[in-house]
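pls ignore typos typing on phone
2-acetamido-2-deoxy-beta-D-glucopyranose + seq
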Amino acid sequence: MAFLQEKVLFVWFMFSLTSGFTSSRSDHYTPPNLKHLTELFPRLKFNQGFKESFGESNIKLMDNGSFVNVTLDKSSGSGFVSQDDYYYGFFNTAIKLPAGFSSGVVVAFYVSSFFSLSLMSNSEIFPHNHDEIDIELLGHQNRKEWILQTNIYGNGSIKTGREEKFHLWFDPTEQHHQYSIIWNSNHTVFLVDNVPIREVTHSEGISSAYPLKPMSLHCTIWDGSEWATNGGKDPVNYKYAPFVASFGDMQMEGCKWDKTKQVPFCVKSGQGLSILDPVEGEEFAKLSQEQKMGMDDYRKRFMIYSYCKDPRRYKVLPPECNR
Ligand SMILES: *[C@@H]1O[C@H](CO)[C@@H](O)[C@H](O)[C@H]1NC(C)=O
Ligand SMILES: *[C@@H]1O[C@H](CO)[C@@H](O)[C@H](O)[C@H]1NC(C)=O
Ligand SMILES: *[C@@H]1O[C@H](CO)[C@@H](O)[C@H](O)[C@H]1NC(C)=O
Ligand SMILES: *[C@@H]1O[C@H](CO)[C@@H](O)[C@H](O)[C@H]1NC(C)=O
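k done
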């Protein structure tokens, strides 16, 4: 997880530099009623597609594996990972975050090629060449709100951090909310409760930094003290442990990666093998006008950091910023 530590440290450093950059937030936000992509696919139980990745004694299955509680305590964080790798897909989970003091606690939902077994067994993996699409929820001491951070890497483009950070319009510790990632050859989209909050188009601008390796899905909780929260000033306080996050409504739909043949094969729910990749359909290839408007409005109100608006960090902005 060293790569995670590196980048989070950097992000918090940048965040402290840019803390003057605030959103014009509205407390009277009603999310638009957009297409419910999360209603299109079956929800998976733990043993229908996942396995423990670390901190096994801190993972608890509930409701026959429909929900998974992952705990961070003094002994360990914990997490689980998809059994398969995917080459494009739609990934969703509902998360309820730990209530109370949460400084330094990080809850993450991400796809990454870093631990991709198919590549590793082929010894093709270069730790600095990996692809990743991140949703990270960052606990905070002083603000009541958790912060949602998104990031995207291709081919190990870690030096060019492409972070964007957002406030949420709800208290994420009260109930479960849906967090989703669309990833295909056209674009990558981050969504919260079916509202798109960020779109990264697979354009010439971003070219080789666009994720194009098979990736596995990870759900984790871990201690971000060393680098998060003002450079370690407000570490995880284990007086308030255990910190428990609940994951449910797990959905993974798209092209699984065939490790033997090293090709993607696409499965459409209920129909077995199919050449039609359900995430390449029109509604996954581009955002509708309504979705675009919903996204623009959300970003205007709730975005608190974008690398594209950080000239102190990038004297020359990454090419995809100049749209
Ligand atoms: C639990 O889930 C499995 C599928 O993962 C299913 O086969 C089994 O019948 C379920 N058990 C109960 C009690 O619902
Ligand atoms: C699972 O985690 C959620 C979120 O922290 C919590 O509300 C719930 O009580 C937990 N359930 C158990 C059995 O630990
Ligand atoms: C999505 O990308 C594919 C090629 O990967 C292209 O054929 C298709 O036209 C694109 N769709 C949209 C809506 O841009
Ligand atoms: C990926 O990065 C390596 C250097 O780390 C470079 O040699 C290679 O050309 C890159 N691949 C692509 C597709 O840009």
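The longest helix spans residues 2-17. Residues 45, 47-48, 64-65 surround 2-acetamido-2-deoxy-beta-D-glucopyranose (ligand 1) (CB under 6 Å). more later
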